Amino acid sequence: MKQYTVRHLAKLSGVSVRTLHHYDACGLLKPAAVGANRYRYYGEAQLLRLQQILLHRSLGFSLQDIGSLLDADEGSRLDTLRRQRDAVCRMLEHQQHLLQTLDRTINWLEGGPRMKDEDFFAGLKPSQQAAHEDWLVDRFGGWMREAIDASRQHLAAEGHDVLQARMAEIEDLEAQLAARFAVGAGADEPAVGALLARHRAWVAGMWGRPCSPAAYAGLAQVYLAHPDFVARYESRRAGFAAWLAGAMQHYAGLLPG
Which terminal residue of the chain has fewer beta carbons within 10 Å of its beta carbon, N or C? Predict the structure, then answer.
């Protein structure tokens, strides 16, 4: 049976050595064996379990919940995997619509045939935005509708140029946060905290009102609960969605009142 050292498994999976050590310490992913040299060795069963851990993490499950799911009976695990597959299919379908819209637009601008009118906004229709807003209202209550309307009015008053600058800023912030995640940074690291402070300020700017610690922690839950947010962050790096939400909640817990 082929065995993998912790460094080999880290390279194969894209998970940091530090994270694998943490999974071992908390009992989530134990190595198949530990050699006399104290090296950890992983086999095929551990590869499969790590795959399942990463799948669950990408869909927003906590490590505690993942442990319970993976230790459940086979029928329960299969049911969970089927639900995960359905969620991933919905994400992929939406992303595919966006990709097709981009490809058609690029082709047209490069001299290809003019796009059909109905293709201009595939994946971007206001009805989809409305569906997202309805989801938020259903989940959090009627006050969310008022908050959404107030934010829309605030952004309209700021103007297009300000909005473009804000979108460039969030792109840069998310890229920097994903880079910290990629090197195994923890939520308690000062560099991560500084980026989250900027992120929280960006959120407040988009909302047009202060972003309280409770609101910031709540936003983290939204990021984990809505498949479009999960897809956005997972497109940067597998596992980033759960890491970002966890880092936001940790940061919110350190803020006064």
Answer: C
